[in-house]
Amino acid sequence: NLDGVLVSAPDGPVLAANAAACAILGLSEEAICERGREGLVVSDDPALGPALARRARLGATRARLRMRRGDGRTFPADVTSAVFADEAGEERAWVIFRDVSAETAGEARAQGIGELTRALLEGTSIAEVLSMAARHAPPPVGARVAWVTRLGEGDTVEIVTGDGDLAGELVGRRFPLSNTPTARAIATGEAVVVEDPERDEGVAEAVRHLGLGSLLVLPLASAEHRFGS
């Protein structure tokens, strides 16, 4: 099966996984079984409880749930599950899932663009629009954190707003513009990808040591000028 397939006990333990499940999750079958449902499905996903209740009531369910890969990253999955009895009469459950990150990224992008467009047309303050932009930026690319910078006085750049688990450590910080990724994006008007921030001297030290992995920096511009990233 090209989709991930798990065989589990209805109360959570995973008993077997196919090759596709291992590839999608980035885990061996043994590791998947060790983690069980608690280690594979985001426990506070609001759709999880109703999905389990529906399966208990009807014997089968389908839901969009957030699952967790071996490296800790989460992703949206279409999940179908049905209860059955094995040869020994033990109650078991099939769980079939597929990664729908690409589909949800498109949906999130369209929703974000629509919300930003409405806000601009309604005269929402620029500060709030920038906050909305930071909020909508992470989902389409699977980012942990997003922030918005603007050019300040004296050839500096300031992080004015952000979204994500590390945003609080960055918002309000000011750095020399010099050869930062923001400076490069503004100068070229094009996206800048920093594969390894820890080795890029242009990345501010406060950002460099957060262990974020690669960075994607997009210039922010109006028709007349570029003003941040």
Oligomerization category of the chains in this entry: single chain
Total number of strands: 12
Cα shape: elongated
In round numbers, the mean pLDDT is 86
Describe this structure in words.
By secondary structure, this protein is of the alpha+beta class. Helices cover 34% and strands 31% of the residues. The protein is built from 8 helices and 12 strands. The chain has helices at residues 19-25, 29-40, 48-58, 101-121, 126-136, 138-141, 181-188, 205-208, and strands spanning 4-8, 14-17, 60-68, 74-85, 91-99, 145-152, 156-164, 174-176, 192-194, 215-217, 220-221, 226-228. It has a 5-stranded antiparallel β-sheet with strand order 2-1-5-4-3, with helices on both faces. A 3-stranded antiparallel β-sheet has the order 6-7-8. Helix 4 packs antiparallel against helix 5 (126-136). The protein starts with a strand and ends with a strand.
Task: Lay out the secondary structure.
Layout: E1 4-8, E2 14-17, H1 19-25, H2 29-40, H3 48-58, E3 60-68, E4 74-85, E5 91-99, H4 101-121, H5 126-136, H6 138-141, E6 145-152, E7 156-164, E8 174-176, H7 181-188, E9 192-194, H8 205-208, E10 215-217, E11 220-221, E12 226-228
Helix pairs in contact: 4-5
What's the gist of this structure?
This protein has helices at residues 19-25, 29-40, 48-58, 101-121, 126-136, 138-141, 181-188, 205-208; strands spanning 4-8, 14-17, 60-68, 74-85, 91-99, 145-152, 156-164, 174-176, 192-194, 215-217, 220-221, 226-228. The protein is of the alpha+beta class and 229 residues long.
